[in-house]
Design a protein that fits this description.
3 domains; two-stranded parallel sheet; two-stranded antiparallel sheet; 4 helices; membrane; glycosyltransferase activity
Length: 188
């Protein structure tokens, strides 16, 4: 197919790496661990946490870019890009939760919330929500009632039917030949 790859370091950058001078990367590839000061982010640490489906979940906030103090321009640019990547991830999660119409924290009926907390119902409601969420996840992962047959079994069935069909045609042809021979002997 004559496929060729063209590597262009001006487009993609890993947060935590310094870009070449005069280059504004357009794509962050956050597959590696990166950090600024005491704060760090590693995508692998979040593989078992569902920040997409749990309302208002987000990654730890990166430090404020105005708090950066570095005399080295390369380090400063690297740190700002790392912070921007983390901020964009959290911004995307926020927009996702808004689109899903998650109930905003603090927008519940305040008196209802106080009553629920005072009666201990708040914990029950929280547990019920978690159970409902787990049941929903489980139902999504349960196998369907339809039996799915693997392609290998289909191939075996097709071969068996082909062999059976061949033998059937062969037996019909041979039986006709046998009948013709018997008729020919009877005429003699």
């Amino acid at each position: 197919i004559n496929l060729r790859h063209r590597i262009n370091p001006d487009i993609l950058i890993y947060p935590g790496y310094s870009p070449r001078k005069g280059v504004e990367p357009r794509v962050f590839h956050y597959g590696l661990k990166f950090g600024v000061g005491n704060w760090s982010f590693d995508k692998a640490d979040w593989r078992n946490t569902d920040v997409v489906n749990i309302c208002w979940s987000k990654f730890p906030e990166p430090p404020d870019p105005s708090t950066l103090s570095s005399t080295d321009d390369s380090t400063l640019v690297k740190d700002k890009l790392s912070i921007e990547c983390a901020q964009k991830l959290n911004e995307a999660l926020y927009l996702h939760h808004m689109r899903r119409k998650c109930i905003e924290a603090g927008k519940d009926n305040l008196s209802q919330s106080k009553m629920n907390v005072s009666n201990g119902r708040w914990q029950e409601r929280k547990k019920a929500t978690i159970r409902l969420y787990r049941d929903l996840q489980q139902s999504l992962h349960d196998p369907p009632d339809v039996v799915i047959v693997r392609p290998r079994y289909w191939m075996v069935c097709v071969w068996m039917l082909s062999v059976f069909g061949f033998l059937l045609v062969l037996s019909v042809v041979l039986s006709r030949k046998k009948v013709r021979l018997e008729r020919a002997k009877a005429k003699e």
